[in-house]
Structure to design on (103 residues):
């Protein structure tokens, strides 16, 4: 529950921080500087986030074996046969283990 709550709180806090940094005041008419900053954030700013994600993910290869591993982990989690280890990663099933999807 705590993870869910913390994920729900972070985006509004980050948004508020960014708006405070550019001088946005919600109850006032915005000056030209603030309006320009908002335009940059909503235009090229968003593009930069997508570009950064594309660059980071371009090095990650999602191969067929990785796809099978993810599907196995998801099926195992649905059946309660997998949990988090001390480092917070999903434990894998022994080689050759098969969990049939439930309908």
């Amino acid at each position: 529950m705590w993870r869910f709550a913390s994920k729900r709180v972070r985006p509004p806090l980050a948004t508020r921080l960014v708006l405070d940094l550019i001088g946005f005041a919600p109850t006032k008419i915005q000056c030209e500087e603030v309006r320009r900053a908002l335009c940059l954030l909503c235009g090229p700013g968003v593009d930069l986030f997508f570009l950064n994600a594309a660059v980071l993910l371009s090095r990650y290869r999602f191969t067929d074996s990785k796809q099978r591993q993810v599907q196995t982990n998801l099926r195992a989690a649905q059946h309660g046969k997998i949990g988090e280890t001390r480092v917070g990663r999903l434990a894998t099933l022994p080689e050759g283990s098969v969990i049939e999807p439930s309908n």
About this structure: Helices lie at 2-22, 32-58, 64-78. The chain is about 60% helix and 0% strand. The chain has two domains: 2-58, 61-103.
